[in-house]
Every structure is written in C-alpha cells, then in structure tokens.
Design brief:
six-stranded mixed β-sheet, 290 residues, alpha/beta, Nitrilase/N-carbamoyl-D-aminoacid amidohydrolase
Length: 290
C-alpha cells in the first residue's frame, strides 16, 4: 500500500491551501499513491496564534466547499485523501481529519482527543473516541485508524486503534519532531504491530521541522538475525515536498499472526486502574480543562 506524505507549507489563506492541496493530491496520484496524507489542520496551516476568536472564526463545517473539493478530487483521481481542517461543529470547534476514499465517500471522521489544553488549543473541543474504517483500494482492503499529533504521546490512543483492528494509523502533525517524539512513534508501531504514517510541516512553518515518518511496525523477520529498523521513511527537515512509502501489508499481517506483541498476550483484567476516572494522582495539572 503506497502512501504519500504531503510535507508542504500553507499559503496563508484557506482558498490558497485548498488550491495547493488539490495540486499535491494530483502529484500523489501521479506517484502511484493510494492515500495522500496532509499535516495537521491544513485548512488554516495550523495557524492558531493570536486571539482565539480570530482563528476560531476560520473554522469550517464538514459540508463546506473546502471539504467538498477534496471529495471531488478523491473521486476524480481514484485515491484516498486524508484532509485535515479546523472544524466547526454543533458543539464547538475541533481539530479534525476526514479520510475520503477513492470514490469520494467519507469513511473516517476523527477529531483530536488529546487537545493541547496547556497551549493555544485550549478553546478546542476534544473528539469523542478513536475510530477505524475499512479502506477499499484497487489492490486490497485495509483497516485504517487515525490519531493527531499530541494523541501520539498517549499509548492508549494507538492501543485502542489496534484493538479496533487498525493496520495502518494516520497521524497528521504540527510540532518539532525531535528524537523523543520520533521514539514515541517507533514505540507505538512496535508495541501494536501497526504501521504509523506521520505527516508534519517543514521547518518553514513556525515550531515545525519536517521529519515526516512511516514506521511499518515489523521488528523481526524469519530470515533476519536480530531486529530490523521499522522506520521505512523519514523526510528531511527543511524541504517541502511529497514523500512516498510502500507499506507491505502481506508482511505486516503475517507478522501479526506469528509475533507476540499487540493483543497476543495482553491481560486487560489487570489494567482496571487505567480506566478509573476517580484516580487523581500523580501530577494532574491544576489548570486541566477536563
């Protein structure tokens, strides 16, 4: 399964981002990609600096012309598009991703659960759950999940997606991808035997530094001594562009069938403390919103 990570810079306007995004989707098709993945909140280029009311006013509903143009492009090109946007909903403003299949149908609508309450994302409403969907491609079907940026820092995000069947997890991003955050992605892929594709903005965008990645989640192969590097793609820091990775689903599925990670030997009956909302320590921040 070929995925295109669109590590591109925003234009400064929603209209410009729409036009540029559609152009790069076309390039993804030309490169033979089956999924085109955008960085976090592409509709406004993750520009949430300044007064909250100003950037919240740029939120758009899922029925907006911006989103509809990507539905039409997905249908025209015959590829899946994971478009990201600042979403206006009946309950508030969300940081969202919509996966549109190659027929132009919405198949996975996800809003960031772990919003950055400690920073500019404080006014955003969190998503309600982690979701998966079956994506049909010309070659085969696969189960896709999604998490967004800060979600990566909670093992529960990828774990829930794995338990819901996710083989490939899409992770739009907008932050510096240094060694520790890259290590988080490597760990999430390893411990869940899942491929994780992360698309970040290049360093031309404030507080971002490229390094979009794909970890395929396969740490061992029968004909290889020791372990292998699960990172099959890491983009440059500065360069804007499209980065292509091929995820071997046959290899991943066989690995899941025979290896010991993921759900193979879990003991969820021992994990009750993880879902005990009455637990208030240690170090819960006093300014926590929810």
């Amino acid at each position: 399964m070929r995925i295109a990570l669109l590590q591109i810079s925003p234009t400064g306007t929603i209209e410009g981002n729409e036009e540029k995004g559609l152009l790069w989707c076309g390039k993804a098709k030309e490169a033979g990609a089956e999924i085109a993945l955008f960085p976090e909140m592409w509709s406004i280029g993750y520009d949430i600096s300044g007064p909250a009311e100003a950037w919240k006013a740029q939120a758009i509903p899922i029925t907006s012309p911006f989103i509809s143009s990507f539905r039409e492009e997905a249908r025209k090109l015959g590829i899946a598009i994971a478009i990201t946007f600042l979403e206006k909903t009946a309950d508030g403003i969300c940081n969202s991703m919509l996966l549109i299949d190659g027929k132009g149908n919405d198949i996975l609508h996800y809003s960031k659960v772990h919003t950055c309450e400690f920073g500019d994302e404080y006014p955003l409403e969190p998503g309600d759950d982690f979701h998966t969907a079956v994506l049909e491609t010309e070659k085969e079907n696969l189960t896709i999940g999604a998490m967004i940026c800060f979600d990566r820092e909670f093992p529960e995000s990828a774990r829930v997606l794995m338990l819901k069947g996710a083989e490939v997890i899409l992770c739009p991003n907008a932050c510096p991808m240094e060694i520790n955050r890259l290590s988080q992605l490597r760990a999430r892929a390893f411990e869940n035997m899942a491929a994780i594709a992360t698309c970040n903005y290049p360093s031309s965008v404030p507080d971002c530094n490229g390094h979009s990645t794909v970890f395929d989640g396969v740490a061992y192969l029968p004909d290889m001594p020791g372990s292998r590097d699960t990172c099959i793609l890491e983009a440059s820091e500065e360069e804007e562009g499209m980065y292509i990775a091929d995820i071997n689903l046959t290899m991943l599925r066989e690995y899941r069938r025979t290896e010991v990670h993921g759900n193979a030997y879990r003991h969820p009956e021992k994990y009750h403390m993880l879902i005990d909302t009455a637990v208030s320590e240690p170090f819960i921040r006093s300014d926590r919103k929810r």
